[in-house]
Structure formats: structure tokens, C-alpha cells
Amino acid sequence: MVKTPCIGICSATSLGDVVCRGCKRYGFEVINWNGYDSDAKQAVLSRIEKFTVLFLSSRFHIFSEAALKRGLEQFSIPFNSALSPYCWLHNLLKKGRGKINNLSYFGVSVLPDYARFDVTALAEQIDEDLMALNAAHLERYGLAPDHSLNRYPSDSETNLG
User: Fold this and answer.
1) What domain range is 59 assigned to?
2) Given 14, 54, 81, 86, which residue has the most CB atoms within 10 angstroms?
3) Would residue 32 count as lying in a domain?
4) pLDDT (tens digit, 9 = 90+) per residue, 88-104?
């Protein structure tokens, strides 16, 4: 069973955003999630993971996955252990915004090129970048599910493969 990427900050259903501000699924993916088969769900997670790792790994270093996992569990922040720890970090930055005083407690450091930035400001910039990339990807590839085939486009069909 493929776990939902929802982290409880849904703007797709509550505000009608094209891209959810929490999990970064497209609105139609949030709405149709329970109707997707495992392959379709995995395709969604793969895109989210690739985009998230792209932005977060260029700004942060995770030096202890165990500390990150422990901190997320301690603060009851949802994460999918099957995805990259950078996806876990994204959830921490979203759900812990304004509450994180010490990233090293979570086994994370900011890379030198970004050390001058406040973590909250850095998280907001990453979020804006992720939203823009997801929106551009949706526009470029027209990723609405193909209901006639009852499937979601594969990675190879969306140039993610």
C-alpha cells in the first residue's frame, strides 16, 4: 500500500490551489488519490520526491537520518520512511515552521552557501521554488490523469524517468 504524502496542510481542497502548499500534489491528485492504483500513487510520489530532493539537498545536509526520524516522531510530524530523508526534512520545515530553533537537533545543517539565511526564510524560499517548479511541470506536461485508461502518466511519459 502506498502511503499518502499528505502532511495536514492542504491548500488544494481548502483554497483551490493548483499545487498543494503542504504535500505538493496537484489538486486533482489530492482529490483522486484514493482512486489511484499503486503505480499511479508511486508516480506522484516519485515526482514529489525528485523535486524535493533537488531543492533541499542543495541547501541542507542531513548528517543523521536517525536524529531526523526521532525528531519528527517526537513532534508528531508525519513522514514517509520510504521516501528520501530530504522529503522528511521538507515536512519538518513545513510543519515545524517557526518552532525549529536548532536544526542540528534533527541531524540537519544548512550548507555554507545558505548559512546566512534564517531557516524560516530559507524554508519559505524553497517552498516558493517547489510550488513554481510543480506548476511549471503541470503546465508543460499537462499531467491530468488519463481517465480513459484509468491510469496516471508514467515517469517516462512525463520526462521524469
Assistant:
1) 47-142
2) 86
3) no
4) 999 999 888 777 879 99
